[in-house]
């Protein structure tokens, strides 16, 4: 497997941005990303993000969004079985 820092960084940024968007929070690039909407403490949200943008038939990552932090929970393959 060939490693490419720039490509892999873009992929990680995609997952973070998609997770924040699914959780209803602004992305890092938008202003006011601290603690959700700025009206108090944020809460954790569990979201699923497709491995390939725009494809519902690829695997999905389950992620937890907690304020500005994004954590990987598990990888779910298209059949719905957790892989991690």
Fold and architecture overview:
By secondary structure, this protein is an alpha+beta fold. The chain has one domain (5-76). 21% of the residues lie in helices and 25% in strands. It is built from one helix and three strands, in the order H-E-E-E. The chain has one helix at 5-22; strands at residues 45-50, 60-66, 69-76. A three-stranded antiparallel β-sheet has the order 1-2-3, with helices on one face. Strand 2 and strand 3 form a beta hairpin. The longest helix is centred in the N-terminal third of the chain and has 18 residues, at 5-22. The radius of gyration is 14 Å and the shape is globular. The model has no long low-confidence stretch (mean pLDDT 78).
In short:
The chain has 84 residues and is α+β, with helices and mostly antiparallel strands. The chain has one domain.
């Amino acid at each position: 497997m060939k490693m490419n820092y720039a490509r892999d960084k873009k992929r990680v940024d995609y997952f973070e941005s998609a997770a924040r968007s699914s959780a209803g929070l602004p992305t890092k690039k938008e202003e006011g990303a601290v603690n959700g909407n700025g009206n108090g403490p944020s809460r954790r949200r569990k979201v699923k993000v497709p491995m390939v943008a725009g494809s519902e038939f690829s695997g999905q990552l389950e992620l937890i969004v907690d304020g500005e932090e994004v954590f990987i929970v598990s990888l779910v393959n298209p059949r719905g079985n957790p892989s991690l």
